[in-house]
Amino acid sequence: MTVKRPVRPSFPLMVYLLVAILLAMAPVVCLLSFVDSVDVRQELEENAIESRNQTESGIALSMNLVDTGLKLFDNTLNHEMQEGFGLFIAEYERAGRDPGEMDLFRVKEQLGGRMDLYVINESGVIVYTTYPPDLGYDFREIPSFYNRIAEIRLNDAFSADRVVAEISTGELRKYAYLPSPDHHYLFELGLAESEFQQYRTALKYRD
What we know:
- This protein is α+β, with helices and mostly antiparallel strands.
- It contains 4 helices and 6 strands.
- A hairpin with a 6-residue loop joins strand 5 and strand 6.
- The protein starts with 12 loop residues before the first helix and ends in a 6-residue tail after the last helix.
- The mean pLDDT is 83.
């Protein structure tokens, strides 16, 4: 007797056709997916660059606006402080050009009590002032600033700083300078007011 081997069933033609189609399309699908991923990545990178550029431009614009606002705020006080030196000079002349004979506190009252007065000698030391914490301060400890005030003292022009932090307390003040008529001293006015500090601190570069 002979043993009959089982006959394996053959797959339908549709199965072979489907497998052939899948094998043919797989590379195409992979290629399309790769191309799409490259396009998406490129688009994301371009969007990121554009977003970064817009952010940088916005920051630069904001910084310029704050700086412009601070300059405008400071400049509005320059005229008032320049006029204040008229009484300062008049008192210097009344005292015979002797700072020791000047009544600085009276001049401060005439200016409305809003500005402190400083007399800086040729060595850059505050020798007289209505603001005791700064009396005796030697600007030679800050060589660059000492050179600047020495140059102002030797010229005839009014000069004003932007609002800065005071040396002794850190309180915000605006300072202005004018040399004495004989250029032996530099006169300084320091303005500190709660109102302008409030507006000044509202404009912050960090914010």
